[in-house]
Amino acid sequence: MVQQLPDVDLRHYISVKENQLFTPSTRIADVFGKEHRNVLRAIRSLECSEYFNALNFERVDYKDAKGEKRQMYNVTKDGFMFLVMGFTGKQAAAIKEAYINAFNQMAEALHNKQHDNSAVQALQATNQDLQGELLQLYRDKAKLLEQQLSHTKKASTRKSPSNKYFEHKKHQFIQNVVQYLRQHPGANKTNVMAAAGFKKDDKTARKWLADYEGIHWESEIIGISHAYFCKE
């Protein structure tokens, strides 16, 4: 469960520019365990006004690890909250809370230090290594909990021979969805269900789609529908 996971201090993921707080989209991707290209796609697909977009999403260039020029966005707190409303998964809620807390703490630091940027920079540098370890611990713990849950489900189904056919159908559903999403990233729920051989209102298939989100695939809200992406 989320409350079993350690608190994560993300203040060093918040930067300051002209007394304004922001976080780069590359760091949002890092913390949520997403591909940066998927975060960029989510930002560009947001249904917000041009004014809000210009105010809260600043497009900038940066150089990646290979020294190649790439694009990213500097995202304000308001932009961050608008963006991550569509992020789902077992870790997402707690990470959203930690990120928002980091924005609030940095804003308070700016106020208390009367815009003393050197103090804010010192705050950002504090315990970065430790926070990186905590973030990894967070992800490892979530993965362990998911594995334990999966093992518990498998153990219970072994005791019931009548469930073999049900398990076969579920395994086939997972394989079909993974194979389809590898070829069609960003597909909506209706197409994913159809590719797996089910109607979109099939309760069992909808439950499987939700149960294995964050394990075999992930989803984002783009526009008014869910877009699914393979994690394998």
Strand tally, please? 7
First-to-last CA distance: 23 Å
Per DSSP, the total helix count is 10
Biggest beta-sheet profile: 4 strands, antiparallel
Number of domains: 2
Q: What oligomeric state is this?
A: single chain
Task: Kindly describe this structure.
- This protein has 232 residues and is of the alpha+beta class.
- The chain folds into two domains: 2-143, no CATH class; 163-230, Arc Repressor Mutant, subunit A (Orthogonal Bundle), CATH 1.10.10.
- It contains ten helices and seven strands.
- The protein has helices spanning 25-32, 36-44, 50-56, 77-84, 92-112, 117-125, 128-158, 164-183, 189-195, 203-211, and strands at 15-17, 20-24, 57-63, 69-75, 187-188, 217-222, 225-230.
- Strands 1-2-4-3 form a four-stranded antiparallel β-sheet.
- Helix 1 (25-32) packs across helix 2 and helix 3 packs across helix 4.
- The chain is globular.
- The relative contact order is 0.13.
- The model is unreliable at 1-6 (pLDDT under 50).
Describe the structure concisely.
The protein has 232 residues and is of the alpha+beta class. Helices cover 56% and strands 16% of the residues.
Give the arrangement of secondary structure elements.
Elements: E1 15-17, E2 20-24, H1 25-32, H2 36-44, H3 50-56, E3 57-63, E4 69-75, H4 77-84, H5 92-112, H6 117-125, H7 128-158, H8 164-183, E5 187-188, H9 189-195, H10 203-211, E6 217-222, E7 225-230
Antiparallel strand pairs: 1-2, 2-4, 3-4, 5-7, 6-7
